[in-house]
Amino acid sequence: MHFDPTQLATPAFILLVIAEMLFVRYTGRGRYEVRDMATSLLMGFGSVIFGTVFGFIFVWFAHLVTPYRLMTVAWSVPAVAICFVLDDFTYYLWHRSAHRIRWFWAEHVTHHSSQHYNLSTALRQPWGGFLTVGFLFKTPLLLLGFPLGMLAFVGGLNLVYQFWIHTEAIGKMPRWFEAVMNTPSHHRVHHATNARYLDSNSAGVFIVWDKLLGTFVEEDEAEKPRYGIVKNLGTFNPFKVAFHEFIGMAKDIVSAKSLRHVAGYIFAPPGWSPDGSRETSDSIKARWAQYRSAQSPAE
Amino acid sequence: MTDQLLYLAISLAGVAAMIGLCALLFGRAVATLDTRSAAQRLANDVPGFRLGNSALSADCRSAMLEDARNGTVWLVTARGDDFVTRRLGRGDVKTASRDGAALALRFFDFTFPAATISFHDEAVARDWEARMGKA
């Protein structure tokens, strides 16, 4: 069974981006910039090409693992629903790792590299997934017996859901919805570089994973999110956007003085360096907290 | 295979349409700044930043600022309708040369293109060239 929700949703993506642009133009709620948007869309287009060319790696891996599955889950509505929820949890784990381990961040940074936050940002997708093999996070589901087609289907649905939450045009959703689901508000926090928001809200569809595992941060109306990455890129070149962190990591590995340093450059959080001269999200948060308490000692 | 090519063709047409409409609606925005907004931007990017000396480029698209806490020199420069910031320390700047009131900088960071910052006054350029050397 082959049914790709992202492919089917593409016309809707295009229409919604156009609708959002018109909304932003006439209300001033949100921002668009033509070079930034062109980069995001080219990243999205390129990711389809890279996904098509290198998708066989995941298929090959799934065929390797499938003989060891505990059972065989047949296609049914309840099975797809369970698979969707479990897949969303594996997405959370991957996404959390993508912000805490440089190896995965090298790929994921692409998605965060825009200083704008609009529906086109949702399409700013990485090209280097085949290098980082993040699909390994789906191994437990394959071993449980969920078929590859079902995993691809729910993964596609997950991506489609995440499209609409990349917007400043929507404030907050109803309370019950904000409590359970990932929303534009929660995801704005995730894309923010404000120290208080760094490394939070890693959910894909259900925000409950963040709430359960202590990574949830509520959007504070007094502190508007600032988008991008800690060290924003000075280029709109899609190739540099796609591979700059891989190149940076390779340069660090080449200059490393020990195997411990090599491991640190690959598996430690983004920004780690042997002498601590660079900034990680933890060190930025610590400095911000220190600065904040110095500013208002009574707090 | 034909379906896949059709999908790619439709996507590409959609990309072109969206970029065209974006250009039509928003134009090609160029960000400009003053000392206050440059300092505000650095305070956002560098928690605790305290403004010391500063100089604005003649086109108001770049500013060089000194952190009063430690003398670190920072660059704030326009990229599209927003700004990016970079520290201008020895480990960051590959080459720095001055031609009259213009400072030409090349960076080790390959995602940051070479920049030429023209000031109103040659003395200002000379002063910031010297500050970078000390930073």
How do the strands and helices of this protein lay out in sequence?
The complex is a heterodimer of chains A (299) and B (135).
Chain A: H1 5-27, H2 34-54, H3 56-65, H4 77-100, H5 102-112, H6 119-122, H7 129-132, H8 139-144, H9 148-163, H10 175-180, H11 184-191, H12 208-213, H13 238-255, H14 259-267, H15 281-295
Helix pairs in contact in A: 1-9, 4-5, 4-9, 5-13, 13-14
Chain B: H1 2-26, H2 35-45, E1 51-56, E2 62-67, E3 73-79, E4 82-87, E5 93-99, E6 102-107, E7 115-118, H3 122-134
Antiparallel strand pairs in B: 1-2, 2-3, 3-4, 5-6, 6-7
Jot down its keywords:
heterodimer, A: 299 residues, mainly alpha, 15 helices, globular, B: 135 residues, alpha+beta, four-stranded antiparallel sheet, three-stranded antiparallel sheet, 7 strands, 36% helix, 31% strand, elongated
Could you spell the SSE succession of chain B in H and E letters? HHEEEEEEEH
- Give the biggest beta sheet of chain B: 4 strands, antiparallel
Radius of gyration of chain A: 20 Å
Helix fraction of chain B by DSSP (H/I, runs of at least 4): 25-40%
Task: Specify the structural class of chain A.
Answer: mainly alpha
End-to-end Cα distance of chain A, whole Å, is 58 Å
Contiguous helical run count of chain B: 3
Unreliable segments of chain B (pLDDT under 50, ≥5 consecutive)?
A: none
* Rg from alpha-carbon coordinates of chain B: 19 Å
**Uncertain stretches of chain A:** none
Shape of chain B: elongated
Strand line-up across the major sheet of chain B: 1-2-3-4
Total count of strands of chain B:
7
Strand percentage of chain B, roughly? 25-35%
Q: How confident overall, as mean pLDDT of chain B?
A: 91
Largest sheet of chain A: none
Number of strands of chain A: 0
